Amino acid sequence: MPEPYLLCVGRLAPYKGQDILLRVLARNKWKERKLHVSFFGQGVNHESLEFLAARLGIENVSFEGHTSDVIGIWKNHHALILGSRAEGMPLALVEAMMCGRPGIVTNVGGNAELIEDRVTGFLAGPVEESLDAALEDAWIRRHELREMGQLASTRIRELISANPAQEFAYRLVQIADELAQTRPKVRSHSGVSDSKSST
Questions:
Q1: How confident is the model at residue 191 (pLDDT cuts 50, 70, 90)?
Q2: Statement: the pTM of the whole predicted model exceeds 0.90
């Protein structure tokens, strides 16, 4: 396969752990391998992360800024990588899986709810050694990333609707119908049953 291109997308902020990822990439084995990591996003750590990459002598990374073209960026990247110290349910991981890409992510927040380790992606602890080990596993299995991405695409559609707003609205209508059917009937002053209270 061609040189693996990994994507790290999200706010450039301390809790996202891009500095952890950069220190992993500063290890000689990653500098020597044909691997590239693209950082997409903006945030308070932008300048410091670029400075850290330069100070560590990492040449196989690029900082691409913000983009709203989710589908477009995934055309040229093979997997997502996140070194997060903390997460909720990261939209970046959901988008990656929807686009048929596996994730190499830390086991924080909702990541483990979405990723099945070594099946639809790779789970790591939020520390350098663990992230390095997960990235090593992904490198060894780089020829399987496409297949893992296909499994990830199927899995995420089982967990999350492609149109959650529509599904939410439909569920609200269902609940309203169920409440209307179970509302107790009361008798009016005329003695006739009525679902409305008398006035």
A1: low
A2: no
